[in-house]
Amino acid sequence: MVTLATRYSLAQPGYLALHARIRRQRGPASARACWRCGRRARVWSCIAPPGDRIRGVSGSGAPAWYSLDPDAYRPACSRCAALDDREHAEARRAVAHLTLSPIPKRRRAPAPPLTAPVPEPPALFTLDPTDPTHWEMP
Fold first, then answer.
1. Each residue of 60-74: b (16+ CB within 10 Å) or e?
2. Phi, psi of 47 (to 5 degrees)
3. Per-residue pLDDT tens for 84-113?
């Protein structure tokens, strides 16, 4: 039987536990300004160098890199947090000597062929103001 004690190691906090600890110590990131652009922050962004980060699992179950040092986190807006993550991902790829293959450009679908305009069919009836029923059959 797997218990919480055997399933989780308390030697180092996980991604969610560390972010909860930062929120307890410093409050929510949304109460602060982004450290890069000054807009309202949304998340605590890790600015530790790639060598100081460990791999864990985020709240959504996706792999995430985080630091065990609470001082390595800064409040960031969504755009700047994504920029931080992108910069650190590039640094990790450079260390591992990996490159991204270029993404091919999407080709636009060909335009439909031009056709001659279709003539309107003849009217089935017309309105006649002198007729009491106001209908006239052709």
1. eeeebbbbeeeebbb
2. -115, 15
3. 888 877 777 776 666 666 767 778 887 777
